[in-house]
Amino acid sequence: MIIRPGGLKSEPATGNGTLTESPMICGAIHRADVAQLVVKCMLKDKANGRGLHSSTSQLNLSRF
User: Fold this and answer.
1) pTM value?
2) Which residues, including other chains, have CB under 8 Å from residue 52's CB and lie 6 or more apart?
3) Are strands 18-20 and 59-60 parallel, antiparallel or unpaired?
4) What's residue 17's pLDDT?
5) By 3-state DSSP, what share of the chain in percent is helix, strand and coil, each rounded to 5?
6) What are the pLDDT digits (tens) for 5-64?
7) Of 15, 22, 45, 51, whose CB has the highest number of CB atoms within 10 Å?
8) 3-state SS assignment for residue 30
């Protein structure tokens, strides 16, 4: 599993972190939210072998 975070922020977790396999999504995410997502992924077999992108505020680059 590889999680590629967007721009990292050093603020408390928001609980709004999201994961996608789409490389066309980007945005910022808090470090604590990335940590929460990593733990959740480690407990899910379907995350094995995947590359995921994480953010809390998303910008869909396919629109540009």
Assistant:
1) 0.78
2) 1, 2, 3, 4, 19, 20, 21, 41
3) unpaired
4) 87
5) 30, 35, 40
6) 888 999 999 988 888 888 777 788 999 999 999 998 999 888 888 898 888 865 554 543
7) 22
8) strand
